Amino acid sequence: MSDTTMILMAAGESTRFNSAVKKQWLRVGEKPLWEFAADRFAAEFEFAKVVIAAAGGEVDFMRSLCDYEIVAGGATREDSLRNALGAVESEWVFVADAARALTPIEVARRVLDSKGEADCIAPAIKVVDTLALNDGCAANRDRIVRVQTPQLSRVSVLRRSLAQKSGFSDESTLIAACGGVTRYVEGSEQAAKLTYGGEIAQLAPPSQERLIGHGLDVHGFEEGKPMKLCGVEIDAPFGLKAHSDGDAALHALIDAILGACGLGDIGGWFPDSDKAYKNADSAELLRLVLAKIRRFGFAVKGADITIAAQKPRLENYKIAMKKRVAKLLDLRYERVNIKATTTEKLGFIGRSEGLAAFAVALVGYSA
Ligand code: MG
């Protein structure tokens, strides 16, 4: 059994990162960056276990995608580390960053091979540029290094240091400030943080695979309520009974998109017990879902919706609905199709008690 746990920090909000996709969700093939980084180290070294610190709201999704232990991170890297350490039982902890997914394996090996030689072992590189204070005074660059990760720390010392001081951006400087022994080994320019987007080009591009999802929604009719389908107002003496505006077609579409992304269902995202969604505009719910999946590295590529209704007749609305949905999805019109059918007067739909909508969505990984 290994005496070392790996913690992968993947809880950042990537506010400085120039991309619609969150940094830890950039795709390397089909894998999000955090999974790629965790797998890479886990395949090379033996760990007692792997703990991943996730951003709030992403814990369940990450849990559903891998067998690593996922814990909720905090507002800062230090808070996330504190939380993740709660899941560590081993003597040593190897803390890596999803944002440094390009770190050469030799750097990690140098760190791990120095186990026992200090309370914290970290990679660092020398500074080659002239260093000056901002008044022009030269600074002694021989005493300065650029500290990187992954870092290996003695768990007892790291816990004690975190209890003593805060405000440090890494373990090596925290532990040294608290009286522990830090040792630096040779790092690599390759271990730089993916901060501004360009470096990601060195990794495999996002997969071209397409994911498919299906959705179904049924609503009963309610006299006097306005009816909306695919975000288009339909002229009818009744609307759709629901907590929200009852747009069954957009609800089915949302479920299809969530299905393709592996993100559960609309009921989990917008519970009808939540007052915030009372009379909600379903186009707004769709926008929220699209913003979320974009951050996770997904993009909708196409949709096909079928509405089964005896009443009202929808023939004259199909083009308007197609255009409305395409605009909501930011797609060319031809990527969206709307079909309408009756059920030959059979069942609850045939008796005009309500209607059903079915949707299929095609989703890809975005760059
Ligand atoms: Mg519904």
Description:
By secondary structure, the chain is α/β, with parallel strands linked by helices. It folds into two domains: 4-202, Spore Coat Polysaccharide Biosynthesis Protein SpsA, Chain A, CATH 3.90.550; 210-365, 2-Layer Sandwich (60s Ribosomal Protein L30, Chain: A). Helices cover 27% and strands 26% of the residues. The protein contains eleven helices and 17 strands. It has helices at 33-44, 59-63, 77-85, 105-113, 155-164, 171-177, 248-261, 266-269, 282-295, 318-329, 347-350, and strands at 4-10, 27-28, 31-32, 50-54, 69-72, 92-97, 120-126, 145-147, 151-154, 182-186, 210-223, 227-229, 232-234, 238-240, 298-308, 336-341, 354-365. The strands form four sheets. Strands 1, 4, 5, 6, 7, 8, 9 and 10 form an eight-stranded mixed beta sheet that branches. It has a five-stranded mixed beta sheet with strand order 14-11-17-15-16. Strand 12 and strand 13 form a beta hairpin. Helix 5 crosses helix 6 and helix 7 (248-261) runs parallel beside helix 9 (282-295). It is elongated, with a radius of gyration of 26 Å. The mean pLDDT is 94. The site of magnesium ion has 5 residues, from strand 11 and helix 7.
